[in-house]
Amino acid sequence: MYNGIGLRTARGSGTNGYVQRNLSSIRPRDAPLAPPQEKARIFEPDQRILDHERKRKIEIQCIELQDELEEQGLPDVEIEARVDALRARLRERQDAVRPSHQETKNLRPSDTHALGAAKKLEREKMERALRIRPDYIEGEAFSPEIQERRKMERKEERARLHEEAEARREQRLAERAERAERDVRDVPFPYDMVLPLAQRKNPGVICLFDVDGTLTPARQTVSPEMIDVLKKLRDYTATGFVGGSDLDKIREQLQLPGAEDCTCEADAVLEDFDYGFAENGLTAYRMGKKLPSESFINWLGEEKYKKLVKFVLAYISKLDLPIMRGTFVEFRRGMVNVSPIGRNASIQERIDFQNYDNEHHIRRDFVEALKKEFPDYGLTYSIGGQISFDVFPEGWDKTFALQHLQETDDVLPGGYKEIHFFGDKTFKGGNDYEIFSHPRVIGHTVTSPEDTMKQLHELFFA
Fold it and tell me: Which among 65, 64, 52, 122 has a CA at the least distance from the CA of 94?
C-alpha cells in the first residue's frame, strides 16, 4: 500500500497507484432535447442591387462599343442604333442564362449580394436533389407531435384524393349509362332504317369494295366524306366490303375517327353495309348476321403449315432490307399474311418499303420462291397492300365471297343481276385480280378513296 492507495493482499498492493476515469459510467442528461426551432434565417440577396449591378455591366460594354465606333468616325445615328442593339442582346442573354460556375467563382468578397444569389441557387439545387420540402424546419424529425400531425395530414390528403377519384369514376359511369340508354332509345337498329333490297333505285345491283386503297388509305381510317357517299349509295344499290384482313382490323379502319369501339357482332362497321366479307369472305356477314365460315389450318393440315412457316421465316432471315420490324407472319382464319418488313411498321415505313419494293421486287421474288418450294400445296399467292402478300388455298381469293350473294325471291326477285367491284390491286398478281376479272363481276380499277367516290358519282348519282 502506498500513500493510502491500493488494497491489502497477501502479496501487497493490487494496483499501481495510478487513478483513471471510469469510461463506462454514463451520466444522466441535464435537460431533454430542445424543441425544433423556427427555420433559420438565411441571408437573402437584394434583387434591386443585383439588377443594378447587371445594368451597370451592360452599360459598361455599351460605352466601350460607343467609344470604339466614335473612333472609327461612324455617324451618330448608326452608333446609337448599334449600341441599342447590343444593349437589347445583353439584356436578353442575362434574362435567359444563369451565371456560370466560373463567373460565380470569380466574384469578389465584396459582391455579397451576387454571392448570396449564387448560394441560393446552389441551396435550391441541393434541396431538389435531396427532396427537402420548402417548409422543412431543422429538428422536426425528432418531434413526435410534429410527426404525428404530418402523418394525419398525409392520411387526410390521401382520403380526399380517393374521394375525388371515386366521384369522377361514378360520374363517368353515370354519363356512359345515360349515353347508352339514349342511344338505345333514340337510335333504332340500322337495318330497320334502310330500304329493303327490292325497293332500292337499282334493285338487283350490288357494289363490293376493297378496303385498303379503295375505301381508306392503307391501314388508315375512313373519311367522313366516304361514309356519307356509302350511306347515299344504299338508296341506289346493295353494298358490301371484301377485305383480306380480319374483321377487327377492318372495323378499326371503317369506323368514323374517334368513334367508340363496339363489342356487338353487328357493330358500326357492318351497319353501313348490307354485306361484310373479312378474310376474303371466310368470315362473312349478311345484314349484320354471321354466316358459316371456313378455316385455312383445317384445310392445309398442321404439318404442311409448319413447313410453310419455317420456310417463310428462313427466307426473311436472309433478306437485307433497310429496316425490319415485327410480326412477319400473321395467321388468319382463311389465309396466312406474310410481310418481309413486318406488320408493326409505321405508316411512313410502309410507304418507304412500298417504294423500295417497286424498285427491287422483294415480294414478287418471295412469291416465286414459295411457288417453287411448294408446287403441290394448291396455294395461291396474292400481293396486296403496301408491305405484305396473302397465302391461301386456290379458290379462296376474294371470289370466295361471291357464293354468299344468294338472295331468295321474296327478298330480291331474280337475285343480283349486276355485281360491281371496286379495287386498287386489280393487276395480275394483285389481291383484287381474281374477283376483278371474274365473269360475273363488272370490275372498276381505282387509284385512291377519292377516285372511288368520283366513279360512284359518275355511275349512280349523275
Answer: 52
DSSP 367-411: HHHHHHH-TTS-EEEEEETTTEEEEEETT-SGGGGGGG----TTT
> Is it the case that residue 374 has pLDDT exceeding 80?
yes
Cα 125 off chain centre by:
34
Binding site: what residues are annotated?
Answer: 210, 212, 219, 332, 343, 350, 388, 390, 424, 436
pLDDT at 407: 78
Catalytic residue among 46, 76, 212, 235: 212
Using CA atoms, how far residue 303 sits from 300, 306, 307, in Å, is: 8, 5, 6
Q: Span 268-293, mean pLDDT?
A: 82
409 a catalytic residue: no
Set of cell numbers at residue 433: 385480280
Indicate the Cα dihedral angle 403, 409, 412, 413, nearest 10°. 110
Q: How many other CB atoms are found less than 10 A from the CB of residue 337?
A: 23
Q: Are 242 and 421 in contact (CB under 8 A)?
A: yes
Q: Sorting pLDDT into bands at 50, 70 and 90, what band is 261? A: very low
Tens-digit pLDDT profile for residues 385-407: 789 998 988 878 888 889 888 87
Strands 336-338 and 329-331: antiparallel
Q: What is the pLDDT of residue 188?
A: 47
Residue 110 DSSP label: T
**Residue in 46, 95, 111, 210 annotated catalytic:** 210
274 in catalytic set: no
Instruction: Report CA 177 to chain centroid distance, whole Å.
Output: 28
Binding residues for alpha-D-mannose 1-phosphate: 219, 332, 343, 350, 388, 390
Task: Give the residue ranges of the annotated binding site for Mg(2+).
Answer: 210, 212, 424, 436
Decide: residue 51, CB within 10 A, 0-12 exposed, 13-18 middle, 19+ buried. Answer: exposed
Backbone angles phi, psi at 391, to 5 degrees: -125, 120
